[in-house]
From TrEMBL:
Organism classification: Eukaryota, Metazoa, Ecdysozoa, Arthropoda, Hexapoda
Chain positions covered by the region annotation Disordered: 599-618
Topology within the bilayer: Multi-pass membrane protein
Name of the molecule in the record: Sodium-independent sulfate anion transporter-like isoform X2
Species annotation: Thrips palmi
Residues annotated as domain STAS: 473-580
Signal peptide location: none
Pfam families linked: Sulfate_transp
Length: 618
């Protein structure tokens, strides 16, 4: 009994360490880790605040929704997350996909999408369906992220130029930017372009090295200061622009810049996600809202998981990543976030990189980031009024331009051009018809490329000679025997035999690379053997696997001759060769299988035409 109790405690502890990850590292938490996590958490918090405001605007929501989305995931991931560097919150990609669902609708659709995304992710985690993410290949991912970067960048031209219009889709946005170009507000454009130049410059100052390989203490402090300025550049820029707008703002007159405006102050209400809503004199129940959201209910969570697992792998430092745990954790983040009016969230690569560079030691860094966001919501919301929209647009543009992965085109062209087709198709269709349809088409193209070898396997034909000097045709098949390839293989092997004309060389089908077969393939092989019998040409099968043999024997293939070694092949071909010329009712038989067939027709009491060779060795 005590041993069973110990085993139960041990298994419980192992389960908790695997699923509630905080139980693994919290007992070893100390002051040094606290200091490192606090510095990293505050640094990431200063980065996420301006990004959250900008991404909420990108998603077609009021800016405070970005902050609502930025804190719950930090707390949840600290408890269940498996990677210390990942920070959960709003991202440009999730904002864009949310925007597709909020065009002409209210925020309730974004909040419900967050809840449903979490439910789908939890279901995928429980059913261990993380493998589905593997069907989205790197070329499709590159095409998708590059296209979304272009879409996001162009969508911010409106804020950068101080324009006011509504658009739907990439092409419509570009057209309206040009048609409204005459309404550009010069001061907004100047401010936005200046912000972009300064942000890109600040991005590089962290790489400045002072003092060579052995810097002094003073030089180290200078480099650390430059790094801190570089990593918190977004917050510093938004703060500086807000201060400038505040100084230039005069009561009762129009501001020089287009400002963010008044935000709802205070913490978000804790409530159930909206399962019904009303807008434009219409009321939608839960079913109606789900119908409006459409395929995004599945696509948004899958894309979120794809990004989160990719970030976890990037910062894993060689450790294995539990994709199921990441699915469950991200699902909990989205479900819990929907109770505080969050839009869909996932891991942010840029903020995770800042977290890693800041020296974070445990996931507790996310707790300090979340606490800073709550502090900002409680105290700083009134001051967000003066943030110029042009500065937020500059922050987003500087974040997404580095997501356009044009550098992969050249190596992809050199290594695998079919992957370039999938990438290009995904990129173009994401821009032309929408990101959700673009990635679906990209995945479909990938699956076609994946299945094509099963339908049209490689067939290699060469003439060989056995040790005893008997010539034969070796036909090597390069894939499994499944129903899409049956007719092709039958035609290819038959064509190889016919091409020899009057020589009538025996055909040996090399089965070493055939890993499996199905019923349709077995019937196809039976037809192939019959075709060869009608031509009085021998056909044998070399080294078929046990799994293939069991399928072929299962359909009652009596004339299926197979050998396992070169010696058996030589012996069988020699026996077949010696049987050439045997007459049966004035018909000359050249095939062992054909002779056996005639013996069977003659009946059990007939005299065998040739001795029985051992063709089926154990």
């Amino acid at each position: 009994m005590p041993s069973k109790q110990k085993d139960w405690k041990r298994s419980t502890k192992r389960f908790l360490n695997r699923r509630v990850r905080i139980t693994e590292w919290l007992p070893e938490y100390n002051r040094d880790k606290f200091v490192c996590d606090l510095i990293a958490g505050v640094t990431v918090g200063l980065t996420v605040m301006p990004q959250a405001l900008a991404y909420a605007t990108l998603a077609g929501l009021e800016p405070q929704y970005g902050l609502y989305s930025a804190f719950v995931g930090c707390f949840i991931y600290a408890i269940f997350g498996s990677c210390k560097d990942i920070t959960i919150g709003p991202t440009a990609l999730m904002a864009l996909m949310t925007y597709q669902q909020t065009i002409g609708r209210n925020a309730d659709f974004a909040i419900l999408l967050c809840f449903l995304s979490g439910c789908v992710q939890l279901l995928m985690g429980v059913l261990h369906l993380g493998v589905l993410v593997d069907f989205i290949s790197i070329p499709v991912t590159v095409g998708f992220t590059s296209a979304t970067s272009v879409i996001i960048g162009t969508s911010q031209l409106k804020g950068l130029m101080g324009l006011k219009f509504d658009s739907s889709g990439f092409a419509d946005n570009v057209r309206k930017v040009f048609s409204h170009a005459g309404e550009t507000r010069i001061w907004d454009l100047v401010l936005g372009l200046s912000c972009i130049i300064i942000l890109l410059s600040f991005r590089k100052i962290k790489d400045i090295k002072i003092g060579g390989s052995k810097p002094t203490r003073k030089q180290k402090i200078i480099m650390k200061t430059l790094w801190l300025i570089s990593t918190s550049r977004n917050a510093l820029m938004v703060l500086a622009c807000s201060f400038l707008a505040y100084l230039l703002h005069e009561q009762g007159t129009e501001s020089v810049f287009v400002l963010t405006g008044k935000l709802q102050s205070g913490l978000p209400p804790l409530q159930l996600p909206p399962f019904q809503t009303s807008f434009s004199n219409q009321t939608f129940d839960f079913t109606g809202m789900c119908t409006e959201l459409g395929s995004s209910i599945v696509l948004v969570p899958v894309i979120a998981v794809l990004g989160n697992v990719a970030i976890a792998k990037a910062f894993a430092s060689g450790d294995s990543i539990d994709a199921t745990q990441e699915l469950l954790t991200l699902g909990l983040c989205n479900v819990a976030g929907s109770f505080v009016s969050s839009m869909p969230v996932t891991g942010s690569f840029s903020r995770s990189a800042v977290n890693h560079a800041s020296g974070v030691r445990t996931p507790m860094g996310g707790v300090y980031t979340g606490a800073l966001i709550l502090l900002a919501l409680s105290l700083l919301t009134p001051y967000f009024y003066y943030i110029p929209k042009a500065s937020l647009a500059a922050v987003i543009i500087c974040a997404v331009i580095f997501m356009i992965e044009y550098e992969v085109v050249k190596p992809m062209w050199r290594s695998s051009r079919k992957d370039l087709v999938a990438m290009a198709a995904t990129f173009v269709l994401c821009l032309a018809i929408g990101v959700e349809y673009g990635i679906l088409v990209g995945v479909a193209i990938n699956i076609v490329f994946l299945l094509y070898p099963s339908a049209r396997p490689s067939v290699h034909v060469e003439q060989n000679t056995t040790a005893s000097g008997i010539s034969y045709l070796m036909v090597t098949l390069g894939n499994s025997l499944y129903f899409p390839a049956v007719d092709f293989i039958r035609a290819s092997v038959g064509r190889a035999g016919i091409k020899q004309g009057a020589s009538q060389l025996p055909v040996v089908v090399d089965c070493r690379f055939i890993l499996g077969a199905d019923y349709t393939a077995a019937k196809g092989i039976a037809s192939l053997i019959d075709d060869f019998h009608k031509r009085k040409q021998r056909i044998l099968f070399y080294k078929p696997r046990a799994a293939v043999l069991s399928v072929l024997h299962g359909v009652g293939l009596e004339d299926f001759i197979h050998v396992s070694t070169q010696e058996q092949l030589d012996s069988t071909l020699k026996d077949s060769s010696s049987s050439a010329g045997i007459k049966y009712n004035d018909v000359e038989l050249h095939d062992v299988a054909a002779i056996r067939h005639k013996e069977k027709e003659a009946g059990e009491n007939s005299v065998p035409l040739l001795p029985e060779p051992n063709l089926h060795p154990a």
